[in-house]
Predict the 3D structure of the following.
Amino acid sequence: RGARLRKGDMSTSMSPANTSPSLRHDMRLRPGNKRAEPEEVSKEDVTGRKAAKGSCHCCGGMLKRNPDFAKLCGTCGARFHAYDCGNRRGEAGF
């Protein structure tokens, strides 16, 4: 009877060295690393679609869902909803 392959075992015919060259991954075909474009640095608050990246500092919700209400603090760089998300401010007495 033939030997049974267990999970994780590789026969010599399955090893990467014996596979067809067309099946091997060529690292030269990978796209080059592209650096992110720097964001505009401003000490003023930014509101709207320009601030709608990432998640809200207060509630963790995605800012792109309501981009018109997104805000970026010019002092500390925090991004948040410009409304009382999660009613946290109301409950705290603000």
Remarks:
- The longest strand covers residues 70-72.
- Helices lie at 88-92.
- The first helix runs from residue 88 to 92.
